[in-house]
Amino acid sequence: MGQVEFELACAAVKELKGPVSDQEKLLVYSFYKQATQGDCNIPAPPSTDVKAKAKWEAWNENKGMTKLDAMRIYIAKVEELKKKEGG
């Protein structure tokens, strides 16, 4: 698995039509951020910004994970979501 598969998964995630839970969206987002930017490097948003805080926390949980590992998990998660919707 490499960059090409990752880019294909990035494109595929935008094509998903089935319902994707907020938890699944956060997971996919967190692995995408880790794969593309590495460890979370921005300050935590205020607790009043619930959506931004949830995204920050999800990404920050991956701290220390390599970009390659995050890429592999992202690809696997997107494949799982595609199968779930029958694609």
Automatic annotation (TrEMBL):
<dbReference type="Pfam" id="PF00887">
    <property type="entry name" value="ACBP"/>
</dbReference>
<comment type="function">
    <text>May be involved in the energy metabolism of the mature sperm.</text>
</comment>
<dbReference type="GO" id="GO:0006631">
    <property type="term" value="P:fatty acid metabolic process"/>
</dbReference>
<comment type="similarity">
    <text>Belongs to the ACBP family.</text>
</comment>
<protein>
    <recommendedName>
        <fullName>Diazepam-binding inhibitor-like 5</fullName>
    </recommendedName>
</protein>
<dbReference type="InterPro" id="IPR035984">
    <property type="entry name" value="Acyl-CoA-binding_sf"/>
</dbReference>
<dbReference type="InterPro" id="IPR022408">
    <property type="entry name" value="Acyl-CoA-binding_prot_CS"/>
</dbReference>
<dbReference type="GO" id="GO:0005739">
    <property type="term" value="C:mitochondrion"/>
</dbReference>
<dbReference type="GO" id="GO:0000062">
    <property type="term" value="F:fatty-acyl-CoA binding"/>
</dbReference>
<dbReference type="InterPro" id="IPR000582">
    <property type="entry name" value="Acyl-CoA-binding_protein"/>
</dbReference>
<feature type="domain" description="ACB">
    <location>
        <begin position="1"/>
        <end position="87"/>
    </location>
</feature>
<keyword id="KW-0446">Lipid-binding</keyword>
<dbReference type="InterPro" id="IPR014352">
    <property type="entry name" value="FERM/acyl-CoA-bd_prot_sf"/>
</dbReference>
<keyword id="KW-0813">Transport</keyword>
<keyword id="KW-0963">Cytoplasm</keyword>
